[in-house]
Structures are given as structure tokens and as C-alpha cells.
Amino acid sequence: MSDPTTLETSSDSSGSVNALGLVFHVDIFLLAVAAVFTLATLPRAFARLSRSIEWRRGHILRSTRLDYRRPRRPLPPRSPPTPAKKPTTKPPEEPHVASSSGHDAITSEESHTYVSHTNLIRRPSTGKAAAKLLPPHVRAWSAVLPPVANLLRYRLDSGFPLGQALVLGLYSAILVYPVFLKSDPFTDPLRTGIVAMSQIPLVYILGTKNNLLGMFLAMGYEKARNIVYAGMMLILLSNVHAIGYIYEWVFEGKLSVYLKEPSNKWALVALVAIDTLYLFSNSFWRRKAYNVFFGSHIIGFIVFLPAVYAHQPVVLHYVLAATGAYGLDHILRLLKTRLFHGRIRPMPDLSMTRIEIPELNSGWRAGQHVRIRVLSSAMGWIGWAEVHPFTIASVAKTPEGLVLMCKNAGGWTKKLYEMAKVAGYGSEDGGISRSVLIMVEGPYGGPGHSVFASYSAAVFVVGGSGITFALSALQDLVRVDLEGASRVKLIELVWSVQDPSSLTPLLPQFTALLQQSVYTPLHISVHYTRAADTLPSKASLPPGVTLTAGRPRIGKVLDAVLQRTMSYGSGVKAAMSITGVIVGVCGPVGLGDEVAQVVSSVDASRRWAVGGIEMHEETFGW
């Protein structure tokens, strides 16, 4: 809201500070802070990427030919391995190879049989040969400095840890410095406009799904919640800048004169665009009218940049930086997008819709998610164009391919569920009768540089539909263990649901996992919080699965895992060093807060005895 020549000829009304140079150095300082955080992740990044397989996972979804691996002759062991028990899985049958017509002969029910379709045979090698298969383990800073990690993990509010508050406080202090350095924002509105302008690239970078900052920090876009705060600071500074000039013009009685200037007209357009973004960013619009939220953001983001440039051409380099980040994101989205036919079926006991895309069977890591569009007129006039994220519930390179379990929790998911109900459970040939065209974009998110198989023990605490995160992680751990490429000595799954009937549709899959985990004990405990008239009989529960009323005692579970981790081990794993415990949590924000409190309360001596405790958190909501 100033004359376009003002910014070039007089950077600051006081004349003692070059405002453009000041904000440039502020941006350099912000880059230096980001570089420090990036350097802290490099040891784990090098360790993970030292294995060639990690370069092919977690980046691009793809279709691969499924071939069973033939068992290799085991190397002569130095000492005979002592497995916990003999494998009980049946020999795998001849696989169905992916073709252009898909896996028509494999039904959803077959993918849930008790027979393992991991298609791998354990090779009990020892010594250097076995060591080469094991994933390298580098402890996270939270495990190296547990007192600091416990402090940063402390919740100031639900889902709001102290660590995040400190990051936001540091960012605020960095912006306050150039705003108030030899300047008063009430009498010098130009300075606030310059500071706001300098933050445009950061806001656009944090707002994209594929951004370099997230790649360097190994952090998915869904974890970059600071985008909300950075956006609010941009909006606040822009409005202070505008209000300062409007007040000045009104006081001079020249408001109408200044508003006729083209640069100031464009300033109003930019201000309306950014304020519209803020207005439609609250949770009400996200939950009740997602299309309004999505559409307003697309229009606002596109209109804002050219309007800012028309207002002050000198900000071209900032506009180009933001445009580059926005353009790179959409190019990568296009490269990550796949179009396949998928099969859907309802899961009434879980109130979910199961989506299977057999031909899309590789390219993701356990814990990652994809964004999908269901291109069907049954989704409504606008619903077919909506994009929604769902965690992948399967492991790569299996006949069932990419599997999603979509909770019936809103208008879009309700339409999907109703469409699946019309299809029913199957047709006469045993296959799924409803096939839909699905646009899949991803994968995104995931555990970053953490490799679950590199820990001595894994604990997964999930709630409701968070079971999809645990399913993919369990399948991956069991598979790499059968390959002899896992350090995990035991696995514990704690699943909290409202209705005990939620267990029924997943019992076959749980049973298959228990049968496959012959070298690493797996225990699954299901807790239900709502009274039920009928419960699954104990006889129907396989060994290793328990069903208990009430909320889980997470502290007690973790305590037992720590004790078993220090004492358990057989065969090759008995000689392995203890490399820590990973605790994965996926569910409501309150569940994440509870697990964080439990992890922080572990005694220091026990924490060191197991090599540290690390936590990976995925929470519902926005």
C-alpha cells in the first residue's frame, strides 16, 4: 500500500537502515537455522541410504513383476541357529504375475488367507554374511539426549509439544527483530510490508506437498504444521502494513486519491486474496466444506503472487522463488501420480471401505500414505475431483498390491462406502464386483530416516483406523525378518477400538502374521472401550491375540517390552547388540499425548540399558 518507487528509492523512512538488505540477511539466517537441523539428520540419512534398496522405496509408486524368490543354499553356520520354533506356514503356491489385465484371479478374500504370501524363505546365515543383511542403526538425537528429548516432548496443550513452541518462538523473534529495529510499525508501515514480503517464499515452500525443506529434514508435509503459523505471521504483517497506510491516508483526507493508483489497487487485490486464505483455513471449512477450503486456497495462492508483483515490482525475486517452489511441487505431483482400476468392498464391522489396486505393487515404505481421487460419477458432481489422504495398509511387492482402508467419517468417505455396499462382497466368480478408476498420488510421509527393522524391539500403539499404519509396518517387519535382514527381537501391537467386533474382519490377517513371525515373537492386544452384547469367542482367537475390555495400560506394556528386550534372544539374534526400542503411535491426538508421556516417564537407567527409546507419531486431524 505504498508508491511503487518508494521501496526502491527509500528503503526505510528513518534512512538509517536498509530494510531490503535487513530482510535479506534475516532470510539467510533462517536458511542457516534450517541447515543446522539438516546437518543433525545426516548421520541417519547416510545410514539408511547406504542400502541400495532404500533408494527405490518411498519416492515413486510403480508396478513390478512379482516373482517368488527361490531358496538359496544356506551358508555353513559357525554355530547352529536356535529358532524359537519351526515354521508352520505352508509352502507358497505358484504366484499370479501382474499383467495388463490385473490380478483378476486373486480375490480380496484370498489375500487374507492363513497362508503366508510373503513369498520368502529364511536364510539362517551367520557371521559377515548375516551382518551385511542387517540394516545399520544410528540412534536419533532423542535417544542420545533423552533429558532434552523428554523436555521437548512435553505437551503444553493437546498435540502441541514444547519443542514446537520453541521453534515457533524462535521464528517469531527472528521476525520481530527486523520489524522493530529502529522502526515503529505504527508510524512506519513500509517496514512491516517488506518483512512480510520476505516471508512469501517460506510460506509457499511449507505449503507444498513436495518441498526441498521437508526432503532435507526427512519430514512429510503433514508434519510441517509451522505452515499455519508462518502463514498467520505473513497475514498479520500484511494487514498491519495495509492498515498503517490506510490510517495515514484517511488522516490526510486523501484515501480516494491513493486508492486510484494502480499499484495500490493491486495491493488491495493481494490483501483480499491472503485474507480469504485465512478466512477459509479454519477447521470448520476443512471438515464441513472441504471443496470450499481447497478451491479458495488454489485461487488465493495463484492470485496473490502476481498481485504482489504488480504492487511492488522490486519483489520479483521473492515472487519467482515462491513460483518456483509451487511449480516444482506440481511437477513432482504429476510424476508421482498413477491411474489404475481398483476394487472396493465394504468392511461393515470396521465401518471402512477397502480399496485394492493389485497392479500398483511397489515403491512405498511402511507408514507412508497416498492421496487419491475416485473417478466415478457415484461420488457426486464434485466428489470425483476431491483428493483425500489415506495410509497404505499393505506391504510392497505382494499380489494384493496397494491396499487402503478408508474410514467412513465424512461426506466423501460415506459416498465411497455406499458405493462399495452396492457392489457387495463379491460376484459369482468370487471376485469383487465393483471396479472403479482411481487416481493415486504419492507416496508421502512415513518414518523419515528411521528404519524399524534396525531396532531391537518395536511397539505400535494405534487407535481406530490407525491400524492401517500398524498393518503395513508389521507386514514389512515380518518380511524382512524372514529374509534375515532384521534386528527386531520382539514386536508388540496395541490396538484400541470402540467395538470388539472390529477385530473380526482382521483376524485372518492377524493369524497369518502370527504364523509368519516364527523368528520374532509377535503379540497383538486389542482393547475395546464400548460395551457389546456379543464378543468373539476365545476359541476363535489365535495364540498371540488377546481381547480386553477398557483402555490399554501403555506404560505397563512398554515396561514389559523393555524387560523382554534386554533378556530375549535366540540363534543369530542372541549375539546382536541392543539397538533401542521404537514406539510408533497412530491415532487421535490424545493417544499421541498419552504415549509421549509414557515414553518420557521411563527410568533413565532402563532407557540406556535398551539403547534408547524413540517415538514416531502419526495423528488424525489437521
Q: Into which percentage range does the β-strand content fall?
A: 5-15%
Average pLDDT number: 84
> Helical region count?
21
Radius of gyration: 27 Å
Low-confidence stretches: 70-126, 425-431
Extended strand count: 14
- Read across the widest sheet, the strand sequence of neighbours is 6-5-8-3-4-7
Largest sheet: 6 strands, antiparallel
Between the first and last Cα atoms, what is the distance in angstroms?
Answer: 33 Å
Indicate the structural class. alpha/beta
The gross shape turns out to be globular
Percent of residues in helical segments?
Answer: 40-55%
Description:
By secondary structure, the chain is an alpha/beta fold. It has helices spanning 6-9, 19-49, 127-133, 141-144, 146-153, 162-180, 189-198, 200-206, 212-217, 226-252, 255-259, 262-279, 283-288, 290-311, 316-335, 411-423, 467-482, 507-516, 554-567, 589-600, 604-609, and strands at 155-157, 160-161, 337-347, 352-357, 368-374, 388-391, 402-407, 435-445, 457-463, 490-497, 522-528, 545-549, 581-587, 613-619. Strands 6-5-8-3-4-7 form a six-stranded antiparallel beta sheet. A six-stranded parallel beta sheet has the order 12-11-10-9-13-14, sandwiched between helices. Strands 1-2 form a two-stranded antiparallel sheet. β3 (337-347) and β4 (352-357) form a beta hairpin. α5 runs antiparallel to α20 (589-600), α8 runs parallel beside α15 and α12 (262-279) packs antiparallel against α14. The longest helix is centred in the first third of the chain and has 31 residues, at 19-49. The protein is globular, with a radius of gyration of 27 Å. The two termini are 33 Å apart. The model is unreliable at 70-126 and 425-431 (pLDDT under 50).
